[in-house]
């Protein structure tokens, strides 16, 4: 007889989600987004299971102060389409940052999550705010320091 390996399923008492606050001021966009996606997915926990939501909630503050390197501020394009013929709209990083700074971080993290119903569910656990204030004090979030600048 062969030994069957069972898929690990975490119990509901081990899956109580935490809330974290991350300050995005002067952080690199891509490195910050990968750290956030890891926490949302739950890959930083020993109870990680690929097909389940074992992640935590993440609150991002100061999204308007996120940093990019090189010429991305003027050359990186964000595209959206209305669904109508000729409905493609493009804008640069600096234009979008002045208009809706939260969307930059949201799109960077969303691109690193699974492209299925699990990814859409995980994306709802991300809360992004342009300024230093957030309305989630009742959840008692922990401050999480992420250093995305090497050598700093």
From TrEMBL:
Q: Which CDD domains match?
A: Ribosomal_L13 (cd00392)
Keyword hit for Nucleotide-binding: no
Report keywords, A-Z.
Ribonucleoprotein, Ribosomal protein
| InterPro entries, per the entry | Ribosomal_uL13, Ribosomal_uL13_bac-type, Ribosomal_uL13_CS, Ribosomal_uL13_sf
The segment annotated Disordered runs over 73-96
Q: Where is the composition biased (Basic residues)?
A: 73-83
List the record's Gene Ontology CC terms alphabetically.
ribosome
Q: Which Pfam families match?
A: Ribosomal_L13
SUPFAM superfamilies, per the entry = Ribosomal protein L13
Subunit (UniProt): Part of the 50S ribosomal subunit.
Record-stated family? Belongs to the universal ribosomal protein uL13 family.
Functionally, this protein is described as follows: This protein is one of the early assembly proteins of the 50S ribosomal subunit, although it is not seen to bind rRNA by itself. It is important during the early stages of 50S assembly.
Record-linked NCBIfam families: rplM_bact
Protein name (Swiss-Prot/TrEMBL)? Large ribosomal subunit protein uL13
What organism does the record attribute this protein to? Candidatus Synechococcus calcipolaris G9
